[in-house]
Amino acid sequence: MTKKKHLYEVDLMRCFFMFGVVLNHVASTFAAALGNKATPAGRFLVSTHLILHFPRFGFMFITGLVLFLGYWGRPEKQNWPVFWKKRYIGSGIPYLFWNGLFLAFLLLTSGSFSWNKWLTG
To answer: DSSP letter at 88?
Structure first.
């Protein structure tokens, strides 16, 4: 089996999307610190923050592309139950663990915790 060529364009796109994430966080921090969002500067920051949501979709696209290229034409790797088990163990369990830990932290630090407030707020 021949080794697949490294796609440097994917690395470039990842850097571009990472820069977009950082820029989005900076814009949202400035917009939150700005008291009056009705000013021209406030409207600019809020609209910039909304426009900069593209990295989320870019990362989803890149992830799908990399998975597709990694599994395309390799029948030995197309074992879907093993694929989903690895994803669940590598991503799903840590996600559930850290969310549970955060919820436990909220329960311990908040004297008036309610499920209704947590789900809606």
So the answer is: I
- Give every residue of the chain whose pLDDT is below 50, as ranges: none
H or E stretch at 65: helix 54-71
Q: Please tell me the predicted confidence (pLDDT) of residue 118.
A: 65
Vertex 52 angle, CA 50 and 58, to 5°: 125
Cα torsion through 41, 47, 48, 54, rounded to 10 = 180
- Whole-number Cα distances in Å, 9 to 6, 14, 94: 9, 9, 30
* pTM beyond 0.90: no
Report pLDDT for 75: 76
DSSP-based helix, strand, coil % in the chain, nearest 5: 80, 0, 20
Q: Which two structure tokens, joined as six digits, stand for 72? A: 């395309």
Phi/psi for 27 (5° steps) reads -65, -40
DSSP for residue 39: S
